[in-house]
Amino acid sequence: MAAIARTSNGGSPAFRTRATENAVSPHGQSLFDVDERLSVSSALEHSMKSLNTVAVMVALAIATIPEASSHSVKDLEAMLGSREKYFQPIDKPAPHFELQDADGRVVDLAALRGKVVVVHFIYAGCPDICPLHADRIADVQAMVNQSPMKDVVRFVSITTDPKNDTPDVLRAYGGIHGLDAANWLFLTTTPNQPEDTTRKLAEQFGHKFQKTENEYQIHGIVTHVIDKDGRWRANFHGLKFEPANLVVFINALVNDDHKPHGHDERGMWDRLKRLFGS
Ligand SMILES: [Cu+2]
Fold first, then answer.
1. 4 alpha carbon to ligand 1 midpoint, in Å?
2. φ, ψ (nearest 5 deg) of residue 204
3. What pTM value is reported for the model?
């Protein structure tokens, strides 16, 4: 039985092309200024490979944009809200988790402070959707890792099937899907946690993995983005979102040192250091 994923159709090629082209605009304006001159029939829309190439250029280009303010993150949220229909802005503390990697190293949310974290839930035995989700995350990671953002961004896959996703399975999975272990983690439950811990965690993130009689799981697809302060800032739903939009959003959070929630010390210190060139 196939897992069922909550996806919907859309994401017109015209939109993808326009958003991507505008994101590389060299004029120092908003990444999403509308440029109606672009042709809908651009060759880009026919080639995911070309799109990825352009998207890598986007990642490189935006990495050189001067520090964004929280104001620009809000602006970007508003623009993504109208242009990327699979984007859902959120602003609340991310659900806490304490899990472990294939080598038994415990990783909790607090350990990821100071990093922008892209989290998603999958299980290795999934026959259809999870492999595609992992491939999509690998695409985004490849773009991010072409830029200095690599040091500030962590990609975290969490298995919802800890019984079957043994350490060996976890170790093999990244290589199969092109995920770079430099800033990617595949986490599972710790030995003393109940078997459904990560499925419960997915519910805290707002979606469900429901086990069926034959070991498959019925589930949706959501990519979560957590900022450097551990706040859950967005969901990208399904697989039809434009990867470059996720990269642009990640970039805004990487550059956002403003603390809108009343704890500004580190951001202020960083700005002072930059001001004095140290
Ligand atoms: Cu799946």
1. 8
2. -65, -30
3. 0.72
